[in-house]
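User: My advisor asked me to double-check a structure prediction for LacI family DNA-binding transcriptional regulator before group meeting. I don't want to rely on an old file, so could you generate it fresh from this sequence?
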Amino acid sequence: MAKIEDVAERAGVSVTTVSRVLNNRGYISQRTRDRVEQAMKELRYQPNEMARSLFRRKSNTIGLIIPSVAHPFFGELAYHLEEYADRRGYKLLLCNSNRDVVKERKYIDMLKKNQVDAIVMGSSVVDIEHYLHLDSPIVSFDRTLADNIPIVTSDNRMGGTLAARLLIEKGCRRPAYVFRGIGGPHHQALMASERVLGFDEALREAGIGSLHLELEAVEGDSLRSEEDLVRFLLEHPEVDGVFASSDVIAAEVIQASHRLQKRIPHELKLVGYDDIHIASFFTPRLSTIRQPIREMCECTVDLIARQLEGEEVAGVHSFPVELIERETT
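Assistant: Sure, here is a fresh prediction for LacI family DNA-binding transcriptional regulator from the sequence you gave:
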């Protein structure tokens, strides 16, 4: 296998000159550059990318921290982020935090030590201060970290409003909002917490009260959530509509309703949030609020790239949502 010294000898230049050509640093005449590139081609020389990254202090890697890639929404998020990162010449390093404070902190420290170029934060249960001392650019997905850290989100409040209006239009007079917290005071850092604000406001305007049910933040334990939902619906038989804060929770509502032989949409109307790929495969097919995840991921990668170029991009970058009505309403 050819080495950089072989390229230098074939091109009749120094090793330093070859290195400058590889890393595009310093002035190199076009004639010299052509000779070096021709020598590399003839020798089939493959540069050491790790060494180049260390030389440039750039890894071309973006770290992504999410609660769990097994969750359908975060699985789609990771897929689209990787797609757009790859188009910009970046690779994605995936970290599952499982909403565990210790694990999330370890991942942040690991990403810092491995000198990733940037971090996309899709899971935030540690103290905000932990992010403020990082040298890498950060983009937060649907979570408030700090004023100088850009956020990509959807219009959560409007999503709640659209869900309430649809349930009202379909005749619901005792709708409920079902969500899953993340534990502790950090739930308020989620932009998704605004969904209930739009939901409750629209109901108040119609003179209708609402109930709230918070499910435990236990990853992968859908059976416990189903039990909680069954108990809730038994305790509140008057509930005739549900706005679930995610499509996954909406699927759990469908299962709980099936156990109670409560027919959807005849006895209980249901609206989800996200419009994940499998939402249209539920039985019945799920009415939901669509957030444009593909466009949001493209924006996230663009914000990373602009920060790496030295641009200031702080602020909230919010995307409009859309009501998708299917069979559950």
